[in-house]
Design goal:
The chain is an all-alpha fold and about 280 residues long. The chain is globular. It contains 12 helices and no strands. The protein has one domain.
Length: about 280
């Protein structure tokens, strides 16, 4: 049992699970726009997500403990390096237009983790984009929306300025914000007040109300698309209801895997449901 728990913890801590969520949303985009499975862009997104998330999460730790890294961090570093090599392999299989998108989203991730902006821009001592008051959740949502919607479509020469694509990007942006709320509620007791997260600014109760309203907006936006299918509506409705339930039951004292596994599994539920309906 301990071995299984160790393996599962590695699965979560090494960002494999969150990378699968990003991969699932990217595949969903291809399905929604009737594009064939694109191995190059989907595998790139998966391995790039592991590399990027581990870089963001462990950059500071690795720099501080570089002479005495804990065993778990050493393993994650080696694993991340392997993923980085695979990520580079698929990078060169993307189209030129997709590479331009990768540079933009990559820079956002880099600035999110690395202190490069003058200190006086920030409200605390951490010179990183994620330390700017209230900005963290919107950076993550923007990058996820771009990577999971724009990048797969650009790599397949799809018109990203069409009405349906714009609506999908907005939906994806809202979805990620909603999915982040249980995390922000969980971290309410630990986050610096200067981060100005949504629960810090308006409280847990109002945060849940905002999340429910955004979920309803997310669903209603589906009707603004030119091509609306019953399968897409049903799958989206189920996912929205599941998301609302997870949000309503979110607390500051959560079970260990409530947000890090179950909430982050919602894109996987959506993909599985849409594949079953198809």
């Amino acid at each position: 049992m301990r071995i299984l728990r160790t393996i599962f913890d590695f699965y979560i801590n090494s960002s494999i699970h969150v990378a699968l969520a990003v991969y699932a949303l990217s595949w969903l985009t291809l399905i929604q726009f009737n594009i064939a499975y694109d191995e190059n862009v989907l595998y790139f997104i998966f391995f790039a997500s592991i590399t990027g998330y581990n870089f963001v999460k462990y950059f500071g730790l690795a720099k501080f403990h570089h002479r005495s890294l804990a065993n778990w961090l050493r393993v994650i570093q080696v694993f991340s390096l392997i993923c980085f090599v695979v990520f580079c392999y698929y990078l060169f299989k993307l189209s030129l237009a997709a590479l331009r998108c990768v540079i933009i989203f990559g820079m956002c991730t880099f600035l999110y983790a690395i202190p490069v902006i003058p200190k006086n821009v920030f409200l605390d001592k951490h010179k990183k984009l994620r330390s700017i008051s209230g900005l963290k959740i919107y950076i993550i949502a923007m990058v996820w929306a771009g990577v999971t919607v724009v990048l797969p479509l650009v790599n397949n020469d799809y018109d990203i300025y069409s009405n349906d694509v714009v609506v999908t990007v907005i939906q994806r942006f809202l979805l990620v914000i909603i999915l982040m709320l249980p995390f922000e509620i969980r971290d309410l007791s630990y986050d610096s007040l200067r981060l100005a997260t949504i629960p810090q600014r308006i409280g847990i109760g109002r945060t849940k109300v905002v999340g429910v309203i955004l979920s309803v907006v997310l669903f209603l936006l589906e009707y603004f698309k030119h091509n609306v299918s019953s399968k897409a509506l049903i799958s989206l409705l189920v996912v929205v209801l599941i998301t609302i339930l997870f949000l309503l039951f979110a607390r500051t004292e959560q079970r260990k895997y409530y947000s890090s596994f179950w909430v982050e599994s919602i894109p996987l539920y959506w993909l599985a449901l849409l594949l079953m309906l198809s």
